[in-house]
Amino acid sequence: MPSLHVLYVEDDRINIVLMEELFRLEPAWRLDCAEDGAEALALLAELSPDLLLIDMNLPDMNGHQLLERLRQDPRHAMRRCVALSADALSEEVAAARAAGFEDYWIKPIDVPKLRQALRVYAPTPERP
To answer: What's the pLDDT at 124?
Structure first.
């Protein structure tokens, strides 16, 4: 199984625990968590994850604002990001994709589907 490093930006502790449990099932995968946008930006000074999973409703900024901050920084401008939200309105999904999120995953997360979806983001020789 290819390795995968994810930074999960989520303020709900239950969702963090669920993601930690999922990553325990995949020993080649690494998970780091931040509970708000500022913590995520601080962690990115030291980390280089393959993927960011960003909750759209963080306590200090929303997912769009965090994505905008990432895109303004040349070190993170091309970083792959997926939005997560309980808001399933088609307008919200479209707005997130238009803003630059690669995908939009609806909470509550279906664990088997999440595992499969994350495998798509694991680096390969063609896509480091």
So the answer is: 73
